[in-house]
Amino acid sequence: MLEGTLKRHGITKQVTAAIIVDRAKEILSEMLEGSPLADDVRVSSYAAGILILGCDSAPATFDIDGMIPTILARIQSEIPEADITKIIARVQKEKGNF
């Protein structure tokens, strides 16, 4: 029933992407727990098989780049339906909430 409702409203891709981002956040958080990168790297978005990691600084981006193959393998094993083919890390400061 839910799947039919999502299709009817044309939001299947958006809801699927949100679920993938949420699950990838949990996996990344678990992998980085206790690491200096835990507060500097987050899952930012997912589209067309590409997961974007937002980093607070260029050094954090450099450090996480070396971990991307491990992160990708773990996410692919735990979320096979996501069909994530690539992870990109980029400097992306979060804007404050108002």
Please give the structural blueprint:
Layout (H helix, E strand, L loop, with lengths): L1 H8 L2 H21 L8 E7 L2 E6 L2 H8 L2 H11 L7 E6 L7
Parallel strand pairs: 2-3
Antiparallel strand pairs: 1-2
Structure description:
The protein contains 4 helices and 3 strands. With about 100 residues, the chain is α+β, with helices and mostly antiparallel strands. Strands 1-2-3 form a 3-stranded mixed β-sheet. Strand 1 and strand 2 form a beta hairpin. About 15% of the residues are buried. The model has no long low-confidence stretch (mean pLDDT about 85).
Provide a short characterization of the protein structure.
With 98 residues, the chain is an alpha+beta fold.
* Whole-number mean pLDDT: 85
Low-confidence runs:
none
The tally of helices reads 4
How many β-strand stretches?
3
Q: How widely separated are the two ends?
A: 36 Å
| Helicity level | 40-55%
Structural class by SSE content = alpha+beta
Main beta sheet strand tally, sense and closure: 3 strands, mixed
Q: Strand order of the main beta sheet, please?
A: 1-2-3
Radius of gyration: 14 Å
Reading the helices and strands in chain order gives HHEEHHE
Fraction of residues in β-strands: 15-25%
* Rough outline: globular
Looking at this protein, list some descriptive labels:
single chain; 98 residues; alpha+beta; 3-stranded mixed sheet
